[in-house]
């Protein structure tokens, strides 16, 4: 193969890479989708930008509310000279995201439906969890957090790999009103310590180690090193 052939082949590959291929979904799948077409998606997006109160109000009314909200919002201030930085949505309303993610589906009879499909480091590592399964695990871990003194408004740092227990921990925090701060499982002790200090974390949750490909990554030792220096 001479240089001209190589150049022509490379140009053909670039041209192919630049092409756009559209693969429409089967009609029966689209008919049962939450967003049934690209046109519907674009209309929803436009409304979210041009009429956010109506759009986000309609979305939020699909949730369970212990007390319905009085206004959608957002009410915000991004100017520190005018007061604390804040953004408020759904003023006057009371709900719990964990309840919306789990309890209401169990109450509606979907407890045996699959809530999480998990695949681990190897394709051989697979598991499925129903809404019942997840709710049970979340309740257990919420009680663990409470036993460690975590209360509404406290921050919990999560230094974990992509395991299903990470989802349990996030939902457990939401269930008791705690804030979860996820720190990437590859961060150094110094980076972990800085993020825990900034968030004023009360508890850190981790695991011993995780496999990434063929390489074991130690997590607990990183946390131990981060905690050796007092905050």
Topology:
Elements (H helix, E strand, L loop, with lengths): L2 H15 L9 H5 L6 H13 L1 H9 L14 E3 L8 E3 L8 H14 L3 E6 L6 E5 H17 L7 E5 L4 H13 L2 E4 L6 H11 L1 E6 L2 E4 L2 E4 L1 H8 L4
Parallel strand pairs: 5-6, 5-7
Antiparallel strand pairs: 1-2, 3-4, 8-9
Helix pairs in contact: 3-4, 5-6, 5-7, 6-7, 8-9
Sum up the structure in keywords:
single chain; 231 residues; alpha/beta; Rossmann fold; three-stranded parallel beta sheet; two-stranded antiparallel sheet; 45% helix
Quick take:
By secondary structure, the chain is of the alpha/beta class. Helices cover 45% and strands 17% of the residues. Helix 3 (38-50) crosses helix 4 (52-60), helix 5 runs antiparallel to helix 6 (131-147) and helix 8 (189-199) crosses helix 9 (220-227).
Characterization of this structure:
The chain is of the alpha/beta class. Helices cover 45% and strands 17% of the residues.
CATH architecture of the largest domain: 3-Layer(aba) Sandwich
Largest sheet: 3 strands, parallel
Percentage of β-strand residues: 15-25%
Give the number of helices: 9
Low confidence ranges:
none
């Amino acid at each position: 193969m001479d240089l001209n052939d190589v150049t022509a082949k490379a140009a053909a590959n670039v041209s192919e890479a630049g092409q756009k291929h559209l693969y429409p979904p089967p009609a029966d799948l689209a008919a049962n989708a939450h967003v049934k077409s690209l046109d519907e998606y674009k209309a929803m997006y436009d409304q979210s930008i041009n009429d956010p109160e109506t759009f986000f109000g309609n979305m939020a009314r699909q949730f369970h509310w212990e007390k319905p909200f009085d206004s959608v919002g957002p009410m915000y201030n991004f100017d520190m000279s005018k007061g604390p930085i804040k953004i408020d949505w759904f003023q006057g309303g009371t709900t719990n995201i964990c309840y919306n993610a789990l309890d209401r589906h169990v109450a509606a009879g979907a407890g045996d439906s699959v809530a999480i499909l998990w695949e681990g480091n190897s394709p051989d590592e697979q598991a499925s969890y129903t809404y019942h399964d997840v709710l049970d695990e979340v309740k257990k871990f919420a009680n663990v957090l409470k036993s460690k003194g975590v209360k509404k408004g406290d921050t919990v740092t999560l230094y974990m790999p992509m395991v299903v227990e990470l989802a349990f921990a996030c939902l457990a925090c939401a269930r008791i009103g705690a804030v979860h701060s996820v720190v990437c499982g590859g961060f150094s002790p110094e980076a972990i310590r800085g993020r825990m200090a900034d968030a004023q974390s009360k508890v850190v949750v981790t695991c011993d180690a995780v496999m990434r490909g063929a390489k074991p990554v130690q997590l607990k030792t990183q946390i131990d090193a981060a905690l050796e220096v007092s905050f």
